[in-house]
Amino acid sequence: MLAGLRRHAQRLVAELAGPVRRVRLRSGETVLEVEWHGSAAPSGATAGEAPPESRPAPAAGADGPESETRPVVRSPIVGTFYRAPEPGAAPFVAVGDVLRPGQVVGIVEAMKLMNEVTTDRSGRVAAVLADDGQPVEYDQPLVALEPA
Asked: What is the mean pLDDT of the chain?
């Protein structure tokens, strides 16, 4: 249910005109509340821009204008990133895997809630950018993709 609220929040923020400082969504007993500090929402949260997961990010080691960019899957929330559904289980994705839109690539735990991280595009996993159990920030790149 929280993943559905998160997706709804991303669509809502993308449709709003001007910067967004706070969003609160409720579905039954589940509440999702996000507040950004400063005068504007994080990049990608204003009207007409793509959600963070679909924005390209520089490839590792990119320095100049001729460096390629790769799409990445980004963390939708601050928390702890997990590559597998439980300790000892196989990771959701590995380098070389071909992904389809909506596929789970990891979990971010925040306040004892497990939030699935999904990709919104197809592609091949070029790199997993976050380690299992690593603290992650909002919008942090987690998985780099390349065309499949």
From this structure: 77
Q: What region does 44 belong to: left with phi over 0, alpha with psi -120 to 50, or beta?
A: left
Segments of 59-148 assigned E as strands: 69-74, 79-82, 98-99, 104-110, 113-118, 123-128, 134-136, 141-146
pLDDT grade for 36, boundaries at 50, 70 and 90? low
Alpha carbon separation from 29 to 5, 26, 62 (Å, rounded): 12, 7, 45
What the block records as the tokens of 58 is 């520089």
Q: What is the pTM of this model?
A: 0.56
d(CA 87, CA 108): 14
pLDDT grade, residue 16 (50/70/90)? low
Q: How far is it, in rounded angstroms, from Cα 93 to Cα 90?
A: 8
Record the tokens describing residue 104, joined without a space: 């789970």
Q: What is the pLDDT of residue 17?
A: 59
